[in-house]
Design goal:
Layout lengths: L2 E6 L5 H13 L3 E7 L3 H11 L3 E2 L2 H7 L4 E4 L6 H10 L3 E5 L6 H14 L3 E4 L6 H11 L6 E11 L1 H6 L9 H17 L3 E9 L2 H4 L7 E8 L4 E10 L7 E9 L2 E6 L5 E5 L3 E5 L5 E4 L5 E4 L1 H17 L4 H4 L6 H20 L3 E2 L1
Parallel strand pairs: 1-2, 1-4, 2-3, 4-5, 5-6, 7-10
Antiparallel strand pairs: 7-11, 8-9, 8-17, 9-10, 11-12, 13-14, 15-16
Helix pairs in contact: 1-10, 4-5, 5-12, 6-8, 8-12
Length: 355
């Protein structure tokens, strides 16, 4: 019998989870059991579309629904309490990045999941990008020699903090909202822990628009293996930029280099009134299946689907360690948070932070 998964948070990215869980239902792997979100109007619309019950209180949803797992897809600072509540009830949990905005919170969630014996995963979907997987294999197999240095960038258009999340952008930052993706990715590729973070931040454009949030965070991270990687993150790109996200990664080793432009995948369109747009079809693409149903594919979707499959494997008797597969876990979530936490401390003090 397919596992039943509830979703907490049906906003911008929550819709991706809704569609993915519906697809898993079509495939008989897992099914969407219930939705929880604050907006009653949006909730009513989504419940009608997906044919499941809805709640404005996540505790009420957990009380009334028979679920195997939940996905926490809410603003960063709310992850902790919701994940812990689900874990206390013995449910498996997928948390959108970051696991929590404090290392103490990450450890609390980690320890609770271990004690409860449930699967805890963090949705670091950059690990599922086939280009990133190819780079990881190359580094793991020693083809690039010793990685010496590199840089990564992830930038959003200004509509993200200004239009999408103006009510909680001040509680986040480019490091929390974007940086953790690449902090995790590079750590996973290098198989090495961060040991020092030195960061600078700018607070100009958003402050002038009434949002007390950093425009950009530049973090230089030294890893135990000796590699030094600069991470550039911001969310103030012009509205006219051709994609919502601009991102990429470059690593240089003693035996070679590898460059990945994750934004410019070679697919572009120009349709009025949107104008020029670039499409990252590796991440998220629509297609019709053999039954004419509109489905989503790409590495963003694969990460969510993998959680659904893992929950079903556990339900069928597979151990959590075996069922996890390529999913990022609590220690991965903690490590990314430690980097982001240190970056903010370094910005505050103007000094490098040892981990």
């Amino acid at each position: 019998m397919p596992s039943r998964i509830g979703l907490i948070g049906g906003g911008k990215f929550g819709v991706i989870h809704l569609r993915t869980l519906r697809q898993l239902g079509w495939d008989g792997v897992a099914e969407l059991g219930a939705i929880c979100r604050q907006s009653e109007a949006a909730l009513t619309e989504q419940c009608a579309e997906y044919g499941v019950p809805g709640y404005t209180s996540y505790r009420e949803m957990l009380d009334r629904e028979s679920l195997d797992a939940v996905v926490v897809c809410t603003p960063d600072h709310l992850h902790r309490e919701m994940a812990l509540e689900a874990i206390r009830r013995g449910l498996h949990v997928l948390v959108e990045k970051p696991l929590d905005t404090t290392s103490a919170g990450c450890r609390e969630i980690r320890d609770a999941a271990k004690k409860a014996g449930v699967l805890l995963a963090v949705d670091f979907h950059k690990r599922f990008d086939p280009e990133h997987r190819a780079l990881e294999r190359s580094v793991r197999q020693g083809k690039m020699g010793q990685v010496l240095y590199g840089y990564a960038w992830m930038e959003d258009r200004i509509e993200v903090p200004l239009d999408w999340f103006p009510h909680w952008a001040s509680g986040s930052s480019p490091a929390w909202f974007l940086g953790v993706h690449f902090y995790d990715l590079v750590r996973w590729i290098l198989k090495s822990e961060p040991v020092e973070v030195y960061a600078k931040g700018r607070n100009e454009k958003l402050a002038a628009m009434g949002i007390d949030a950093l425009d950009s965070v530049s973090a230089h991270v030294t890893f135990k293996c000796g590699a030094q990687v600069a991470f550039q993150t911001s969310w103030v790109l012009p509205r006219s930029f051709e994609a919502v996200v601009n991102q990429g990664l470059r690593l240089v080793g003693t035996e070679g280099l590898w460059e990945i432009d994750s934004q410019s995948r070679g697919s572009q369109s120009c349709i009025e009134p949107a104008g020029m747009q670039a499409w990252n079809s590796n991440a998220n693409r629509e297609y019709e299946d053999s039954q004419g149903r509109l489905r989503l594919g790409g590495y963003v979707i694969e990460s969510i689907e993998e959680f659904g499959r893992a929950v079903s494997r556990v339900k069928s008797g597979t151990s959590i360690s075996e069922a996890r597969g390529p999913l990022a876990g609590a220690e991965d979530g903690l490590a990314a948070t430690l980097i982001a936490e240190a970056a903010h401390e370094s910005i505050r003090t103007g000094m490098p932070v040892r981990l």
